[in-house]
Amino acid sequence: MDNRKQLYQQRGISMCIEHTFDFVRVNISSWLFVSALLLVIPSIILAYMFTKCHFDVQSDEVGMISTFFQYYSYLPLIPIFLSLWASALTSYTLMSAYFDGRLPGQRLSLKETWKYMQANVWKTLFLSIISAIFIFFMSQHVVFFLFGTIIGIPLLLLAPTWIVEEKSFSNAVSEAFRLGFSSWFKLFLMVLLIILLCLMMMMSVALPWSLYELLIESVWIPNGLTASSVFLIQVIELLLTALFFYVFFLMVSVVMLSCVYFYGSTSESIDDITLENDIENFENL
Fold first, then answer.
1. d(CA 61, CA 164)
2. What is the 3-state secondary structure (H, E, C) of 48-66?
3. What angle do CA 118, 116, 127 make, to 5 degrees?
4. 146, 201, 233, 257: least buried by Cβ within 10 Å?
5. pTM of structure
6. Alpha carbon distance 178, 172 (integer Å)
């Protein structure tokens, strides 16, 4: 209960980001354990598809993403969707354990992980489906993209409102819009800043890729590519690509956690101000 009360504190944008990373740091073993259970398999599937496309189709690095989707059509969207769902489920599994007083502490066991995961499986799945449909329509036209951005920023608070507060879905939607539009620019700025920080952290994944390219250009290509060396290159690229996708979706879970802290701060700030105004108006009568 004390952990839940700590969520409802007025924080600036920097404090929301700081508390998010503190939460990850303190619960790093549980965070990595839960994310490994949920994210490793879809990350490996995506890495396999990407590596196969890379070796089957000749394409420069700039056009690799478009080539990837042309090669598979809409098939990669399935593991991408599962990974995004897994990121959301990871975030709210940890939050459930945190509010229950189980975290911070020793790493969650498999049994405990399943216990806290069960409460959030269907809600996170439903929200992931809604998000996928929303993103699809945003990608159809620039007007839809702009409109979706305006509406979508407040909807980032829907998951904390529905899952953390356990309100009905209709009340959660109205609450998300009420709080989200009241703090639209702050929420947008916080999400933008934390995405930039996560991208900077992902640059650490670039070092193994640099070593991989150095081995190809300096060792294997000058010495001639044999069947065994080609197989080794494919295995290394598969592992590095899987690592990239895994870290990427880990960072997605960090963004989702930041929205929970922002929700707690905004809820405390706006509702307290409203309550104070109501009391003041009542005293003036």
1. 42
2. HHHHHHHHHCCCCCCCHHH
3. 55
4. 146
5. 0.87
6. 10
